[in-house]
Structure to design on (427 residues):
């Protein structure tokens, strides 16, 4: 770790305390990775374009309202992926802006970027250029197609990778039910890629710093490396049992709506006043499901008695039980499943999610101060650590909120120098 780091504070016990991350990325995947590192204690400095800011600031409406009820420039996309970060603005197209990045990188442990392949090389801010002056730097590049291969130069967005990675092919209702491939609601390719990026960064830091029995953990001990994350790769890897099914058997998985692919029945069952999700993961749960519905005869029905039989008779199984559950009220069916020990749950919208007592108990929503709106609610990190819990949340920064603070504190710039850089539109 670098010696010129902030002194211990309330976050000193966090797992990544003392690490500094320079985040050159924008929009979703890269900022989400940096946010995860920040939640775990790293200091994160976000570099935004001078005069414009992160592209995600424009991705609305809706926008966060200020204290007078007016729209700000803070979009939900920005609010969801940039907490616990300090924002500075720089013009990377100008040599002085590039030099500031080099100086900050020399004082950092990690750089995160998601520029198109080759773009940062023009500025001398690519992996090889920065590694030459800062060998310990872990350099994480998050792109659509990765740093190599025939598609490497291509741009792309989340839905492109959901489509090309196979996710859309298994999401939605079957053709015979009038369905078609659909993307997931949230930009899941970006968030999956961001998680893989954070894991890759932490692994590279461990390879750089860990000692085993007083000897280096690897031959490259003390040296950083590049972490190459492609959103396309990340989506493919996230399909797990779908990819395993195809690679092992050659059988291409199909869309099944809300139905599962393992233990059956597993789907959204219609009720008289809506639907609930029920999953029977094994034969015992299936038997309890039948008894709870008042149909013990179906537990030993020769068409459904074992899971392979139920999978083979999937459509008939669905038709049979849909007819039964339509006579139940949601609340009564959920209670019956709970008493029977059969996994089940309501289908919530987000208002209902954050009103649920379990979600509230787990603290999945936190309210933090915000310089424009007074306070803002954000989703909490789901990682629960027993000895070093994530307790301190800071709202995502406004554009360039910390420019003066960072450049004064880390680079010892004077007010006159900052004024000159501002007049030249470098910051």
């Amino acid at each position: 770790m670098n010696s010129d780091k902030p002194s211990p504070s309330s976050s000193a016990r966090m797992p990544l305390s003392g690490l500094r991350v320079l985040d050159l990325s924008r929009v979703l995947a890269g900022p989400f990775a940096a946010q995860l590192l920040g939640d775990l204690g790293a200091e994160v400095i976000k570099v935004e374009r001078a005069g414009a800011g992160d592209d995600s600031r424009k991705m609305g409406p809706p926008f966060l309202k200020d204290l007078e009820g007016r729209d700000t420039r803070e979009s939900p996309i920005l609010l969801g992926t940039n907490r616990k970060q300090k924002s500075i603005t720089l013009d990377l197209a100008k040599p002085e802006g590039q030099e500031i990045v080099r100086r900050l990188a020399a004082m950092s442990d990690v750089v995160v970027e998601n520029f198109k392949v080759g773009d940062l090389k023009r500025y001398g801010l690519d992996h090889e250029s920065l590694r030459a002056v800062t060998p310990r730097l872990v350099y994480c590049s998050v792109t659509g197609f990765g740093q190599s291969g025939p598609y490497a130069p291509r741009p792309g967005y989340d839905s492109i990778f959901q489509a090309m990675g196979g996710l859309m092919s298994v999401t939605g209702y079957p053709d015979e039910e009038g369905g078609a491939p659909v993307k997931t609601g949230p930009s899941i390719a970006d968030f999956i890629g961001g998680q893989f990026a954070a894991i890759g960064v932490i692994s590279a830091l461990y390879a750089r710093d860990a000692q085993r029995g007083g000897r280096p953990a690897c031959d490259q001990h003390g040296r950083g490396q590049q972490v190459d994350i492609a959103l396309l790769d990340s989506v493919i890897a996230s399909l797990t049992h779908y990819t395993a099914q195809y690679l092992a058997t050659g059988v291409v998985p199909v869309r099944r709506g809300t139905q599962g692919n393992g233990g059956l029945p597993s789907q959204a069952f219609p009720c008289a006043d809506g639907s609930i999700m029920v999953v029977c993961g094994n034969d015992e749960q299936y038997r309890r499901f039948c008894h709870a519905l008042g149909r013990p005869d179906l537990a030993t029905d020769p068409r459904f008695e074992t899971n392979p039989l139920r999978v083979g008779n999937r459509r008939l199984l669905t038709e049979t039980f849909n007819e039964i559950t339509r006579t139940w009220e949601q609340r009564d069916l959920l209670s019956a499943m709970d008493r029977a020990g059969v996994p089940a749950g309501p289908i919530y919208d987000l208002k209902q999610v954050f009103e649920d007592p379990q979600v509230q108990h787990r603290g999945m929503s936190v309210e933090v101060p915000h310089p424009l709106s007074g306070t803002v609610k954000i989703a909490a990190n789901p990682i629960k650590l027993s000895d070093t819990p994530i307790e301190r949340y800071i709202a995502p920064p406004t554009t360039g909120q910390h420019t003066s603070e960072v450049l004064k504190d880390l680079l010892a710039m004077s007010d006159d120098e900052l004024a000159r850089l501002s007049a030249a539109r470098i910051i």
